[in-house]
Design brief:
single chain; globular; alpha/beta; 7-stranded mixed β-sheet; Spore Coat Polysaccharide Biosynthesis Protein SpsA, Chain A
């Protein structure tokens, strides 16, 4: 069986995409993949680097270039770009069946075969809940509808096309710009409005679960589900503004990013925030840091 995987990215995320692809293939050596890369244009040298990684496994890499002009009138900001909307066009390139969409800021840490076995015949997608959502009224959603994270989605192509989901999401984002916080994710949730299947947190481990006090105040995941996601995640999603390729990032699974980075042509990468000052800060004992903060205050 050939599994269809889709990534959507721009030129700035090629290194991280390379890491994501390597981790996927390294942890699924007995599976065959067609990997579609929807992008706004990837330089030939960069594409060769991606091919170099994928050619070592039983996989095919497919380059799909999309015109950014399509998103000129849609919401973007400093953290979300036009590339976030690329995934909406997946059904134009994959005719039918299931496809797994993955953000580029992820690491696959195990087999995804069980994820593909998820029955989604009655749903548009299967995804993992995004905890902390409370803007139902702004997005015109029913009060009891759950809000999912769009960074990992198992998509039912046939049902997506039948409902014309792409155009409906674009129309919603265009007509409700003040309600959009997480661009396409808000648009997808607003239109789907709870009609999606819930996946276990281990398939999209989000950084928020490691925040202090999260376990005590959250009501989205069972104790066992949260434990499994923390200890044996299948997909680690580096959500938030702090990323594992940054020196000061403290994500508990940061080492996985660097493990797979060393297997790519970008292995010599040096974090941009690796400065003398930040290095000194990282080496300073905790008591000195606290003393310094108190002095400054």
């Amino acid at each position: 069986m050939i599994y269809n995987i889709v990534f959507a990215t721009d030129q700035n995320y090629i290194q991280h995409l390379d890491v994501a692809i390597r981790s996927l293939l390294e942890n699924n050596k007995n599976s065959e993949f067609k990997i579609f890369i929807i992008n706004g244009g990837i330089e030939s040298d960069e594409w060769k680097k991606l091919i170099k990684v994928s050619s070592q496994y039983n996989s095919e890499l497919i380059n799909i270039t999309i015109d950014d002009f399509l998103f000129e009138k849609l919401v973007t900001n400093h953290h979300f770009t036009k590339a976030n909307y690329y995934r909406l066009f997946i059904p134009q390139f994959i005719e039918k069946g299931k496809v797994l969409y993955l953000d580029a800021d992820i690491v696959v840490n195990g087999s995804i075969v069980d994820l593909f076995k998820t029955d989604i015949d009655k749903y548009y997608i299967a995804a993992v809940e995004n905890p902390g959502f409370n803007r139902h009224k702004e997005l015109k959603m029913h009060a009891n509808s759950q809000y999912f994270n769009s960074g990992v989605m198992l998509i039912n192509i046939d049902k997506w096309k039948e409902f014309n989901l792409t155009q409906k999401v674009i129309d919603f984002v265009h007509n409700n710009p003040s309600s959009i916080k997480f661009v396409d994710q808000c648009g997808l949730n607003a239109v789907i409005d709870g009609r999606w299947k819930k996946l276990s947190l281990k398939f999209n481990q989000q950084a928020v679960i490691f925040e202090k006090g999260f376990e005590e105040k959250q009501e989205y995941f069972s104790e066992e589900e949260l434990k499994q996601a923390k200890e044996k995640p299948i997909i680690v999603h580096y959500t938030g503004s702090s990323k594992p390729w940054q020196f000061r990032n403290k994500h508990p699974y940061k080492h996985l990013y660097w493990k797979y980075l060393r297997m790519t042509p970008f292995r010599r990468y040096i974090p941009k925030d690796l400065t003398i000052l930040n290095l000194i800060k990282s080496l300073a004992p905790k008591r000195i840091k606290e003393f310094t903060k108190n002095v400054i205050k």
